[in-house]
Amino acid sequence: MKAIVLEKAGGIENLVMKEVAQPIIKDEEVLVKVKAISVNPVDYKVRGNEDVLGMICGRNSPIVLGWDIAGTVVAVGDKVTKFNIGDNVFGMINFPGTGSAYAEYVAASEAHLAKIPSSTSFEEAAATTLAALTALQVLKNNVNPGDRVLIHAGSGGVGHFAIQIAKSMGAHVITTSSAKNKDFVVSIGADEHIDYRTEAFQDVLSNIDFVFDMFNGETLYNSVKVVKSGGAIVSIPTPEFSEEILALAKERDVKVLFHMVQSDGEDMNTLKDMLESGAVKPQISKSFPFDQMAKAHEQLESGRTVGKVIVKL
Ligand SMILES: NC(=O)c1ccc[n+]([C@@H]2O[C@H](COP(=O)([O-])OP(=O)(O)OC[C@H]3O[C@@H](n4cnc5c(N)ncnc54)[C@H](OP(=O)(O)O)[C@@H]3O)[C@@H](O)[C@H]2O)c1
């Protein structure tokens, strides 16, 4: 089968399409014929740095990169109970760990998958994986109905799911993006929009219950200023927070937490229900063929992606 192999961490030229052996499934795994893959910032972070690769993947290069897939089950292990050959499935495979998703066939634990709703395309399903799971796992543990929630980068992969999920939980959603994405974030449910290029959110917001932070650094420091006493922030880029951030958080009685998304079939089933009910709709802004994976990485690295980038097989 064809797979995109990363021989060694580095630039996009290190993503090389190769003929490799089809994976052999374990008892609790299914073999998925992949129809669509989604790409995330972690893909280019791992691709570009051997230390990050080791930390996330738990091994060294060479690897087949990627975690987010949608496709059809073509073989099932002896202990698989939830899926049959012919089922259309989607999920984030083995994260953190090695997902080996940039391939025509992927061995996936049944515990990481859900069935794709009949009205959802493979591309939409592939889009609703790592970014959507991150939004769901962070919000379900931190947000209550009526909360005032600030979501940074609401037009991005995680942010656009976070807006929709927070709205479905009954929160009042405030989000940041540049002006060109205002209409988009309002169309998916944001109650208030702040153009971070012309307005400092910390000057106009206060009394926030929860902040979903995509940046750390200055954005996280300023976010601490707008949260009410007893409130919380989850910041997802790294688990390291500066002394200044931690000191201000302590002074203001604000919790600053990190969350690393985890593969989880139960959460995938929640996302399946949300796709079916219309509570969540993925935005796919760009789609590339399998042999243009490098272009998908370039697009993500621009930092300007609206919604999700998909690669089709
Ligand atoms: N810990 C975890 O498990 C986990 C999981 C998922 C993601 N992450 C991390 O979370 C971060 C976000 O991921 P993502 O997939 O959402 O990224 P993304 O899709 O690449 O985000 C792009 C969006 O960010 C917006 N943006 C850029 N600068 C901004 C700013 N200063 N203020 C507000 N919005 C801004 C852009 O909108 P404009 O063009 O309008 O500026 C664009 O729509 C990444 O660092 C990723 O690695 C961590």
Tally the beta strands: 16
C-alpha geometry = globular
> What fold name goes in the CATH topology slot of the largest domain?
Quinone Oxidoreductase, Chain A, domain 1
* Largest sheet report: 7 strands, mixed
Low-confidence stretches are none
Q: Write the CATH homologous superfamily of the largest domain.
A: Medium-chain alcohol dehydrogenases, catalytic domain
- Helix and strand string, N-terminal first? EEEHHEEEEEHHEHEHEHEHEHEHEHE
Quickly give the structural class.
alpha/beta
Helix content: 25-40%
Beta-strand share of residues: 25-35%
CATH class of the largest domain: Alpha Beta
Gross CATH architecture of the largest domain = Alpha-Beta Complex
Distance between the termini: 12 Å
Number of helices: 11
Total domains, how many?
2
Question: What characteristics describe this protein?
Answer:
seven-stranded mixed β-sheet, globular, Quinone Oxidoreductase, Chain A, domain 1, alpha/beta, Rossmann fold, binds NADP nicotinamide-adenine-dinucleotide phosphate, six-stranded parallel β-sheet, single chain, about 325 residues
